[in-house]
Amino acid sequence: MIPGSNPLQCQWDFILTVAALSLTLLQLGTRETLERKGSQRDLDHIIYHV
Fold first, then answer.
1. Rounded Cα distance, 13 and 16, in Å
2. What does the pLDDT read at residue 29?
3. CA 47 – CA 36 distance, rounded (Å)
4. In this predicted structure, what is the pLDDT of residue 17?
């Protein structure tokens, strides 16, 4: 069987790849946003004062 001859399998590979990339970008974006706002420092501050 030729790899990629099954259109459904190709579609799934594509969907999974896009999903993985989206998750990675989302995680990076969230981390950058947290750092920019200094929210992580605020969270640490709250945790230490409880």
1. 5
2. 82
3. 20
4. 93
Residues 26, 27, 31, 32: is their CA dihedral positive or negative?
Answer: negative
DSSP helix, strand, coil percent of the chain (3-state; round to 5): 85, 0, 15
Type of residue found at 46: I
Kindly state the DSSP code that residue 2 receives in the 8-state scheme: -
Do the Cβ atoms of 16 and 22 come closer than 8 Å? no
User: pLDDT tens digit string along 1-50?
Assistant: 455 567 788 888 999 999 999 999 888 888 777 677 665 667 677 667 65
Residue (of 17, 15, 35) closest to 27 by Cα position: 35
